[in-house]
Amino acid sequence: MTAYESPQLTDLYQLTMVQSYLDHSMEDKAVFEFFVRKLPPQRNFLVAAGLEQLLDFLTHAHFSDDELEYLASSGYFQRNLIDYLSKFQFTGQVDAMPEGTLFFANEPVVRITASLPEALLIETRLINLLQFPILVATKAARCRLAAADKRLIDFGLRRAHGAEAGVLAARASYLAGFDGTSNVLAGQQYGIPVYGTMAHAYIQAHDSEAQAFQNFAVSQPNNLVLLIDTYDCSRGAERVIELAKQLKAKNQAIKAVRIDSGDLGHEAARVRTQLDRSGHPEIGIFASSSVDEYLIEQLKQQEAPIDGYGIGTNLTTSEDAPFLNCAYKLQEYAGIARRKRSQGKATWPGSKQVYRHLRSNGQLDYDQLCLATETPEQGQPLLQPVIRNGKRLGAPEPLDLLRQRVKQQLSMLTPALTNLSKAASFALKISPSLQQLTHQTDQRFHG
Amino acid sequence: MTAYESPQLTDLYQLTMVQSYLDHSMEDKAVFEFFVRKLPPQRNFLVAAGLEQLLDFLTHAHFSDDELEYLASSGYFQRNLIDYLSKFQFTGQVDAMPEGTLFFANEPVVRITASLPEALLIETRLINLLQFPILVATKAARCRLAAADKRLIDFGLRRAHGAEAGVLAARASYLAGFDGTSNVLAGQQYGIPVYGTMAHAYIQAHDSEAQAFQNFAVSQPNNLVLLIDTYDCSRGAERVIELAKQLKAKNQAIKAVRIDSGDLGHEAARVRTQLDRSGHPEIGIFASSSVDEYLIEQLKQQEAPIDGYGIGTNLTTSEDAPFLNCAYKLQEYAGIARRKRSQGKATWPGSKQVYRHLRSNGQLDYDQLCLATETPEQGQPLLQPVIRNGKRLGAPEPLDLLRQRVKQQLSMLTPALTNLSKAASFALKISPSLQQLTHQTDQRFHG
């Protein structure tokens, strides 16, 4: 459960709309879908994530007394709304792509079917809980594609946008293929492996770098990754080599050195040579500092001898694409399909399903957007029922399963879609029935 | 208080370092400073923010039993660390720039003086709690500079990176000059005015736009801002005019229309003409959809008749600069100044103070970076004592006071620094004593 479980974390307009719906007895069944209108130019696919936190929110959401008191005193609302909110719980249906599913523009990722007020009261937090994990899982999957089997650790908590972002980013990046996180709370909360050794301040606090390394070897004998760039990388590496000799007598080993500044490829090559020449090929090189998928790819091309990366800011802020053009839109109300036609923001109407089609080699071929009521003969439906009448249908999916799913799904991408720098699009076909419904909807609501 | 008050929200390396410090009796006094190494290219100044949440964290931080149990079972730590953490509370000194102070690169914004382990245990959350509010307050101040006295409302919760980011962004943007937020929880928590009316789904759920407008007028008689672009802006405006006629008979008024798509300047001009021609100059025009300071400036140049803006994603993700190159670095330990010399990440050593110098016209002239022990004859010291021996020295500063401070500080910017698109730098002079200490430090720690 996240620390914010109240539906009070919402936009005021959700409540003013619900006030009007209650006043005018508009509590019929509504269908809303969450989707991404257009992928950022730097993204050829997105990774579904955040569903677990959303389901948790939906099954716990309720207003507290002090929240209701605040709303009652705000001057915006009548007693009927406050009474309604005091009894509020989510009793609707949720269908969703399982976390770790790859998806594309205009595909519903989560579909909510509930009374109109219920569906609205959860909107803001739903978007808030889905967008960010999708951003981070996608960024992490791109890093994984670039890094192949090198070790990747999330270092991003400090530069994440607040606490929850730091915790959700650790989960989303692990889900998408990272090996662990520096974030202790996330480690405890989600059972993610945690990693960490020392900062520059540790070296600086000692009278000498050599003393700092020695002290650390005493206190963390099985966790010896030494930061060597506080003063000078090359001299730092020499001190590591000296320490390695001393430790050998005690049967203690140095796992790796860490480089956190300068030209990582250049420094790593120099340090690798130093380590190898002194007979320490077993000491790995771990790099951090402004790492992202582009830098990893560049370092790969240079054949930089780097065994793993700590990735912080660029991961947890999704720096090159810090938001998604995503939306949660009304598709049907009281049994009638609806559609937004605003310039550049038009939607496909009706309750929908996505069917995925593969090539004979197992790679993605195309997706088809259909009405939820259609049953095409081919393709795999991507949205699965996860909540019925407000109750979860299954236990949370273990993170290990989600990691396997992402790995398997990434292997289905065509080479064009795995390209990290060049935009490629994926075909979304619209079923004839959906096209027909769109036409009918436009005729009915001609503005 | 934020929902995350545990120091467990940290990077593992803080704890592995503290383990070593305890093992080697390194618990002397340390001085750390938080500063920004380099401003993003799109920022000529930054606005200090987030201090209130940091002080709250520092005066409440403690480890819970289940957190200690997790750490004890992690395999990384000895009993002496767990015992130390079980008694942990922050007992040090904090000096900081008051929230709302404008600052520049390499200036300490917050200075922590505490035992080395204490100063480390708060590092990660300190950076996490300061960086994001600074980003948002700065973005908001830029929007305020562009918008002059037009109304600005934070609409960003849904696309903020998690819940805490949404709440902190509402506070930071209000502090920096916004008029309110759509975020109900932030409104309740911080006493910020909340605003909101309707979404497109509200219009779509009704059989017609006219019916939607009428229903809303019944339920929110004093909060009538009508969204007119669901189907067609111009026809939406006609319906608003019809409704205005009907409402006049009941002495009820429409405050504004909202446009949320398309070319905002073009649509606003057309709608303004419609409203004026029909005798409704009192109905305002409120615009949203991908608004930021650049768009506001462009619309200002076009003299677009827009009275206020809702700003979401670009504000709460600080989209054009989603992170700061900021750091929290050891400057002194056991009475001896320290310095990091890593490539591109070198720091000025010692415990420091910033003195601000103004021109005779009241505008910013230059800042001087001095040793904390220096007492220059001129200039205003920017860091103020806020915590002594773990206790706050004063009550929280009211948001209204912070708003006034930002307004006053923005008026001190030179024209070059207020330019939103063209980079300008501000002079930071280094005192002779600090230069001398830097030289001495390099000689002592020659790597």
UniProtKB/TrEMBL annotation, chains A, B:
A GO molecular function held by the record: nicotinate phosphoribosyltransferase activity
Record pathway: Cofactor biosynthesis; NAD(+) biosynthesis; nicotinate D-ribonucleotide from nicotinate: step 1/1
KW Transferase (keyword) present: yes
Key words of the record: Glycosyltransferase, Ligase, Phosphoprotein, Pyridine nucleotide biosynthesis, Transferase
Domain Nicotinate/nicotinamide phosphoribosyltransferase: 152-332
Post-translational modification: Transiently phosphorylated on a His residue during the reaction cycle. Phosphorylation strongly increases the affinity for substrates and increases the rate of nicotinate D-ribonucleotide production. Dephosphorylation regenerates the low-affinity form of the enzyme, leading to product release.
Keyword Transferase recorded: yes
SUPFAM superfamilies hit by this protein: Nicotinate/Quinolinate PRTase C-terminal domain-like, Nicotinate/Quinolinate PRTase N-terminal domain-like
Domain Nicotinate phosphoribosyltransferase N-terminal: 9-130
Gene3D superfamilies: Aldolase class I (3.20.20.70), nicotinate phosphoribosyltransferase (3.20.140.10)
Enzyme Commission identifier(s): 6.3.4.21
Catalytic activity: 5-phospho-alpha-D-ribose 1-diphosphate + nicotinate + ATP + H2O = nicotinate beta-D-ribonucleotide + ADP + phosphate + diphosphate
Enzyme class: ligase
Ranges of residues in domain Nicotinate phosphoribosyltransferase C-terminal: 377-437
InterPro entries: Aldolase_TIM (IPR013785), N/Namide_PRibTrfase (IPR041525), NAPRTase_C (IPR041619), NAPRTase_N (IPR040727), Nic_PRibTrfase-Fam (IPR007229), Nic_PRibTrfase_pncB (IPR006405), Nicotinate_pribotase-like_C (IPR036068)
CDD domains given in the database record: NAPRTase_A
Protein family membership: Belongs to the NAPRTase family.
Role: Catalyzes the first step in the biosynthesis of NAD from nicotinic acid, the ATP-dependent synthesis of beta-nicotinate D-ribonucleotide from nicotinate and 5-phospho-D-ribose 1-phosphate.
Protein name, per record: Nicotinate phosphoribosyltransferase
Source organism per UniProt: Photobacterium atrarenae
